Amino acid sequence: MIALTSIRDCFEGVIPSVVATLDAEGVPNVSYLSQVYLVDDRHVALSNQFFSKTAANVKATGRAAIIVVSGRTGAQFALDLVHEASLIEGDLFDRMAAQLSAISSQQGAGEIMCLRSAELYRVEACRPLAGPTAAPLAAPAESHPRSEERLAQAARLSAAIGAECDADAMVDRALEGLISDFGFPSAMVLAVDAAEGRLTTLASRGYPIGGAGSEVALGEGVIGIAAIGRHPVRLSDMSRGRRMAAAVRASARMDADRYIPLPGLAEPQSQLAAPMISRGKAYGVLFTESPDRFRFGPDDEAALTLIGGQLAACLRLADREAGDLPPERPGVQQARSGAPFRVKLFAYDDSLFIDDAYVIKGVPGRLLFHFLRLYAESGRCDFTNREVRLESALRLPDLKDNLETRLILLRRRLEERQTPVRLSRPGRGQIRLEVEGSPHLEFIADT
Amino acid sequence: MIDAELAAFIEGPVMIVFGAADAAGRLVIGRATGARCADSGQIDLLVSRARWGAVTDDLRVGAQVAVTFSRPADYRTFQIKGVVTALAPPGPSDIAIATRYIEAVTGSLLDLGVLQTQVNHWLSSDDLITLRLRPGAVFAQTPGPGAGAQLSAALS
Questions:
Q1: Domains, chain A, ranges and CATH?
Q2: Angle formed at CA A50 by CA A47 and CA A53, multiple of 5 degrees
Q3: Residue B143 to residue A109, Cβ atoms within 8 A
Q4: How much of chain A, in percent, has pLDDT values that exceed 90?
Q5: pTM as predicted
C-alpha cells in the first residue's frame, strides 16, 4: 500500500474527493467531499456536514471507498476504508472544523458548511489510478524544506525571540525570522481584541504597507478562523472562490473613514495562519501568504504554531514584568513650538482622529487621548505601564495581559502615519510621549 | 423521469462520477467522459477503459450504479441511481460525444484555475466503453441543507 503521508497533496482540500458507499440492500451512493483529512499513515477522516446518505450507509455497512486527487498534479488514488469512530469533539474534530470554516469562507459558502462530526476511518488499501501515459512519473515536487531543517529553524527563531526583553523587539525578531530564516514571502502579527471581536495588525513584513492598526473580524478569513478556533489554518490553492482580502475590503467599506487597509496580496494562492496560544487563550495570530500554490506544507504549519506559542508566552511575560516595575518620577517636557493640531476622540468606538485623519480606534485610541490630556494639563510626557494599568478612568479591559501589544500597535501606527505625536519606550515599563506642536483636544460624546 | 432540462444538464459540461458494487461485491468508483440521454429513457455513460478498466471489467449487467453529475462552476449536482443494462463498445457517435465533452469540460475547469496537466489525469477518450443504465431515481445533490432530496422515482 502507498504510504498516505507520501501523497499529502491529496489531503489539502484543493480538488474535491469522491466517496462511494452501499446501503444495506447494496444500492450504491456516490458524492463529493470538500476535503479528506490525513490522520496518519493508516487513517483518514471525513467531515460529516450534509452528506447524510453517506453517513447512513456507513452506519449500515461500516465501509466506504474514496478517490482522492493531488491538488498539485491531478494524480488520483483509490482508497478502501473501514469506519472506526465518529468524533464530535477533540483535537482532530477542532482542526477539521477550523479548516472547513476556512474553506467555506474562502469559497463563499458561508455558514452552510458546519462540521457535525469527524468520521475516522482505517485505510485498508491505497492504489494509484492510471493517468496519462505521457505524464512524468509522480515525483512529488517538494519545495518545502525537510522537516528536521524546519524544526531546527523553529528552535533557533524561538530562542532568538526568547532572548529579547522588549516586547517591540520580540515582534520584530519574529517577523524578521519568518522572512529571512524560514524564507516566507510575507509575515504579519495580529493581536486579538476579544472584547471588540477583532484582530488588529501590529506589524508586517513583505508588503508595500505596514498596516499597523488594520483589522480583521474574529471568525473572518483564515486569520479570524485561526483565532476563534485556536488551531492553525492552511489553504493551498485559492484559485477558486473569492479572496479573503477582497471580502475584507468589501465589509470595511461601511466605515471607510475609520478603515486601515489590511496589508495583503491581491491574489493569494496559499495562506497559513497560526494562533498565538498562551494559557489556553488566543493572544494573536501569525500569518503568511504567497501568490504560489502549495507554498506552505504541514511542517510550515507546525513550525509557525511553535513560533506563535513562543511569541505569545514571551509577550505575556513582558507585559507582566513591565507592569510590575515601580513608577519613575514623571518627566515634564518644555512646551515646544510648532503648529497646533486637533485631536478628536469619538466615544462610541474610541476612534481617534488627528487633524481629521483617522489614526486608531479602541483601547489604543483611549490610551493616546489619556496621555495627551495629561500632557496638555501639566506638560507631563513620561508614563509607566503600571500607572496605566491602575488608571480606572481608562476603562481598560483585562489589560494586565495585553497592554504591551496595544502600546506596540499605537507606537507603530503613529510612526506609519507620521503624526505630530509619537510614542517611545525609554525603558521597560516606560512610555514617553513626544509631541511636536500643541494639541487641541476634543472629546465627542455619544449622541 | 429525465426531463429536457435535466437531460441538457447531464449532457453538458459537468463532472461525472459513478459508484457501483462490482461482481465480487467490492465498491468501485470511476469517472465518465460524457453522457447521452437516449430516447428509450436510458442513459449512456462513456468510460475510458484505459483509465477505468479495473472498474468496468468487473461490472456486470444488472449491477446497481449511482452516478453524480456536478457542474464545477457552481457545484449544482444531481445523482441518478439505476441498473446497468448493457456494456458495449462505443457506437459511431459516442467518440464524437466524448471528444466534445472533454473539450467543453476542460474549458470550464481551466476557467476556474484548474491546470490542463491536472485535467489530463481525469478525462480520457482512450479505449471507450459505453455503460448503459436504466435510471430508477433522481436526487438533487447540490451541497447544502437540501442535498439528498429525491426528485423522482421509476414506477415499478
A1: 4-128 (2.30.110.10), 147-324 (3.30.450.40), 340-444 (1.10.10)
A2: 100
A3: yes
A4: 56
A5: 0.76
